[in-house]
């Protein structure tokens, strides 16, 4: 088994076919097949199932992919750090997260980080859901991700750093705007503006409303909370948004946020393969974020852990 075998195997899995992997690696498809065959002979078990639709992992292939992908991620980080030491360059830090996260949470940390590490290239890889962010880290396009944390994340370590209560967002002239709080039952017939079904936030909201006996029926789906805010302003319905974003929306005028009884807060934080393998600048950015988040402690429904 060689390092090239591992790289070819993970590329095949991540691209979905031998041909796509060959194009990405700049080699022939038979050459890719030879690497896969060598691995399967060594294990004496098939790692991939091939069909006209592409490839899927066998149980043995899933075990091997998880291990090889994690190992290559660690090697990639180590290579970058060694090159940084060799060349004297400050390095690069890549973070996977959504655009609303950068706007509402990371701006101050980014400004302080740039002043402290002017030579570091800070890159944000856009992804609009926790699964997409984890996929970006898994594919080694980012060092770590800032995500909504809900339940276990296989093969990833996670650190929750914030709690963000969920609030109802309504136009300021809406009859509900005068209420000090609402319950899920009060929202049974609301025109619900939701996030996409594949997001952790949407699944979290639907799950807890279902536990209260309320089935939410979206009248519109939007990509992020910022767009939900626009739809509420236009009178197209109501949205459920985290306290931090809702606080910013309310400050802009035209909308009101209302606490929802019995709805547990979302947890947000960092996820990566192994925190101990991250470069020092990554740990510094995480520390700066926690420090800058302290300025929002007085926002109702928001908590720094």
Q: What are the salient characteristics of this protein?
A:
305 residues; alpha/beta; Arc Repressor Mutant, subunit A; D-Maltodextrin-Binding Protein, domain 2; 3 domains; 6-stranded mixed β-sheet; 5-stranded mixed β-sheet; 10 helices; 13 strands; 45% helix; globular
Describe the structure in your own words.
With 305 residues, the chain is of the alpha/beta class. It has three domains: 72 residues, Arc Repressor Mutant, subunit A (Orthogonal Bundle), CATH 1.10.10; 109 residues, Periplasmic binding protein-like II (D-Maltodextrin-Binding Protein, domain 2, 3-Layer(aba) Sandwich), CATH 3.40.190.10; 99 residues, 3-Layer(aba) Sandwich (D-Maltodextrin-Binding Protein, domain 2). Helix content is 45%, strand content 22%. Helix 1 packs across helix 2, helix 1 packs across helix 4 and helix 2 packs across helix 3. It is globular, with a radius of gyration of 23 Å. The protein starts with a helix and ends with a strand.
Blueprint (SSEs and pairs):
Blueprint: H1 3-15, H2 18-25, H3 29-43, E1 48-51, E2 54-57, H4 59-87, E3 92-97, H5 99-116, E4 121-126, H6 130-138, E5 144-149, E6 157-164, E7 166-171, E8 192-194, H7 200-211, E9 218-221, H8 225-233, E10 238-242, H9 243-251, E11 255-259, E12 266-272, H10 280-293, E13 302-304
Parallel strand pairs: 3-4, 3-5, 8-9, 8-10
Antiparallel strand pairs: 1-2, 5-12, 6-12, 6-13, 7-10, 7-11
Helix pairs in contact: 1-2, 1-3, 1-4, 2-3, 5-10
């Amino acid at each position: 088994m060689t390092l090239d075998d591992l790289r070819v195997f993970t590329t095949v899995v991540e691209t979905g076919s031998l041909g796509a992997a060959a194009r990405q690696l700049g080699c022939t498809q038979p050459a890719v097949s030879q690497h896969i065959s060598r691995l399967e002979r060594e294990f004496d078990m098939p790692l991939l199932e091939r069909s006209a639709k592409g490839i899927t992992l066998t149980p043995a292939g899933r075990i091997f992919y998880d291990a090889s992908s994690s190992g290559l991620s660690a090697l990639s980080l180590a290579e970058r750090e060694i090159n940084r030491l060799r060349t004297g360059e400050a390095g690069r830090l890549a973070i996977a997260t959504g655009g609303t996260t950068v706007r509402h949470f990371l701006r101050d940390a980014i400004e302080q980080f740039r002043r402290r590490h002017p030579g570091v290239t800070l890159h944000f890889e856009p992804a609009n859901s926790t699964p997409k962010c984890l996929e970006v880290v898994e594919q080694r396009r980012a060092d770590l991700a800032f995500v909504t944390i809900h339940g276990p994340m296989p093969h990833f370590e996670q650190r929750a750093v914030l709690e963000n209560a969920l609030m109802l967002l309504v136009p300021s002239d809406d009859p509900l705007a005068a209420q000090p709080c609402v319950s899920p039952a009060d929202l049974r017939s609301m025109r619900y503006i939701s996030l996409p079904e594949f997001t952790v936030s949407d699944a979290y909201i639907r799950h807890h409303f279902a536990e209260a006996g309320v089935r939410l029926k979206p009248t519109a789906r939007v990509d992020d909370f910022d767009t939900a805010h626009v739809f509420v302003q236009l009178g197209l319905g109501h949205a459920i948004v985290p306290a931090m974003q809702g606080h910013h929306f309310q400050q802009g005028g035209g909308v009101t946020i209302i606490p929802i009884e019995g709805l547990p807060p979302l947890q947000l934080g960092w996820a990566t393969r192994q925190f101990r393998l991250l470069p020092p600048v990554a740990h510094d950015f995480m520390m700066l974020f926690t420090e800058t988040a302290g300025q929002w402690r007085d926002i109702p429904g928001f908590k720094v852990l």
